[in-house]
Amino acid sequence: MTQASFGTTVHDTDCHIVLSGDWQLGQAPDGAQICAAIPAQCRTVTLTTHSLARWDSSLAIALLQLMRCCDEAKITLDITATPPSLQQLLTLATEVPRFQAANQPPRGLKQKLRLQLIAQGQGVYDSLIFLGNSVLAIGRWLTGRAKTRTSDIGFFIQQAGPEGLAIVTLISLLVGMILAYLGSVQLRQLGAQVYVADLVAIGMVREMGPLMTAVIMAGRTGAAYAAQLGTMQANEEVDALRVMGISAMEFLVVPRLVALVFIMPLMCIYSDAIGIIGGGIVANGMGVSATQYLLQTQIAVDWLDITTGLIKSLIFGVLIAIAGCQAGLACGRNSNAVGVATTKAVVKAIVFLVVSDAALNILYDKLGI
User: Fold this and answer.
1) How far apart are CA 277 and CA 253, in angstroms?
2) Residues 6+ apart with CB under 8 A from 127
3) In this predicted structure, what is the pLDDT of residue 112?
4) 246 Cβ partners below 8 Å, 6+ apart?
5) What spatial distance separates the first Cα and last Cα of the chain, rounded to whole Å?
6) What φ, ψ does residue 307 adopt, rounded to 5°?
């Protein structure tokens, strides 16, 4: 084994560096030492390796450091006399340029607003495209042509329904009690405490029951959908399904969408009942008996009120599933992207819920229901 070394000869502004010996890890000079040996007047550096013996990656690292040094000093480096395999390594190492922060000119308020509007419009467009693809996949599932497993639908029904009963029970009970307390402040002054039942029943059945259940599902089930599909996307499992000729919409999205649409009305009815019970607890403390409360609730609520809430819950279920699945399938290829996708799913789902709830309330008002 011969010691790694290099020699430098200078002619005017040209510098010639000859590498010799065994360039191996721990026994070879680094690129900074070679660069320090180049005179300041040199504008061209030529490498020669005819005396080079054995070498490994340490030589490639040293020459990569030399290349960067020459770039900073505006020196031309000629490596055509080096081994072809070494040239390929250096080409591979420099194929992707180093990251440099873009020096973008400052944007005005008008331009920022325009870019934000374009981004939001693109998001709405992507959501509509995803919704259309979901409808087509549901159509193929209904006609028996989709690669959707019934066992998957059952699994997601279990995940979204029975496993979420505890949190729905707690929130619905507290919301019912809050509605009763809010109404009791004014109703006590009029001696009409019994009408607390009307306030709680109508509020839960038409509005708070569907909406609060949907918000809980958005934070629980929608986020779970985004995390599951995002992890599959990062692990390239979705790409593997496509390679096998299996549609991700049919195999991954349809079971989740069907499960959530099926379970949301049931959870909504359960939430309504628990909320009414919560209001009854408060009403009992105001001197309203359980019998009075139940009779007044029966008078206040009819099937039209219940139906309007169930329609809301169905639409909310579709929107939550679409937001969660779309964010998951659009996820990047790293763990950070999974967290971003989950956040986007929850935010987008809540925005969808609020906007659709307002639109449905306006529609119900126009229709007189």
Assistant:
1) 36
2) 322, 323, 326, 348
3) 82
4) 147
5) 93
6) -65, -40
* Residue 287 φ then ψ, to 5°: 95, 5
What is d(CA 227, CA 340) in angstroms, rounded to the nearest whole number? 9
Where does residue 64 rank: exposed (0-12), middle (13-18), buried (19+ CB within 10 A)?
A: middle
Residue 330 parent element (H or E): none
Per-residue pLDDT averaged across 188-198, rounded? 78
Cβ(116)–Cβ(108) under 8 Å? no
Give just the sign of the alpha carbon dihedral 167, 170, 174, 176.
positive
Tokens of 123: 């998001």
Residues near 19 by Cβ (< 8 Å), separated by ≥ 6?
A: 4, 5, 6, 47, 48, 49, 51, 52, 59
pLDDT tens figures, 165-186:
999 999 999 999 998 888 877 7
Q: Which two tokens stand for residue 251?
A: 């195999």
Beta strand 14-23 with 5-11 is antiparallel
Q: Which position has the token pair 């639109």?
A: 359
Residues 6+ apart with CB under 8 A from 17: 6, 7, 8, 34, 37, 38, 45, 46, 47, 48
Polymer length of the chain: 369
As a whole number of angstroms, the distance between CA 128 and CA 331 comes to 18
